[in-house]
Amino acid sequence: MTQAAEMTPAKPVRARAARYNHYGQKIGSKGERTRQTLIDVTVDLLGTHGLRDVSVADVARVAKTSPATFYVYFRGVPEVVLAALANAPLTSPEIDDLLARDWQQPRSRPFARALVDAYCELWNRNRTIFRVRNMAAEEGDERFYRARMDAALPIMTGLTPLIEKAQAAGLVPVELKPRSCGGTILMMLERLAAVGPMAREDDDISYDALRAAAAHTVAMMLGARD
């Protein structure tokens, strides 16, 4: 099995998870509503609390149900977050459109800023669960690490041929690995999206200035032209 195949999310598994609880029992429409309520409440709580600070009892209380009902659908709070991540977007139509363009055509440098802004907007729409995912992954939880890698795959797959094309045109050093370059771009954008909105609003390190600097890096890596 190829690395890409290993990292690709299994769509049939995702679909099954939305219809069956972890005991393998089929969930009806009422059960699906209860399950989604538990997910929504958990995400709301995690907006102001860390993963370890939110208990099953907390979720059940806010959801106006019982811990016993919670355990019908999930084994614990981390599994709720994983369920939320399973339905989170991995890319967006705007990002897909930008990655499909010819970045070596004249006046393509604005594509880079558009890509930076689109990625930051996508990330911050799902800020709570992405933040929790990344922290859990960095603490060594393999499930969240895998979720993070799966989320990166579609955009990395779109970036790689653009980098290869830039290398063929002599715009990017050929000794660099294209997938590693794509991964580096994603790491930069992910960190920018996570901490950029908290940056000081001055001329040197404002969120806008950071995005402009990131766009310059992306433009260079993808061979964009003035």
Question: Can you walk me through this structure?
Answer:
The chain is mainly α. The protein has helices at 3-7, 11-17, 29-46, 56-62, 67-73, 77-86, 93-99, 110-125, 127-138, 142-168, 178-195, 207-222. The chain folds into two domains: 11-86, Homeodomain-like (Arc Repressor Mutant, subunit A, Orthogonal Bundle), CATH 1.10.10.60; 93-222, Tetracycline Repressor, domain 2, CATH 1.10.357.
| Low-confidence blocks of residues | 1-17
For this structure, what is the CATH class of the largest domain? Mainly Alpha
The name of the CATH architecture of the largest domain is Orthogonal Bundle
What is the element string, with H for helices and E for strands?
Answer: HHHHHHHHHHHH
User: By helix and strand content, what is the structural category?
Assistant: mainly alpha
Number of helices: 12
Largest sheet: none
- What fraction, in percent, of the residue positions are helical? 55-70%
Mean model confidence by pLDDT: 90
Distance between the termini: 41 Å
CATH superfamily of the largest domain: Tetracycline Repressor, domain 2
Query: Which strand-content bin applies to the residues?
Result: under 5%
- Give the C-alpha Rg: 20 Å
Determine the CATH topology of the largest domain.
Tetracycline Repressor, domain 2
List how many beta strands DSSP finds: 0
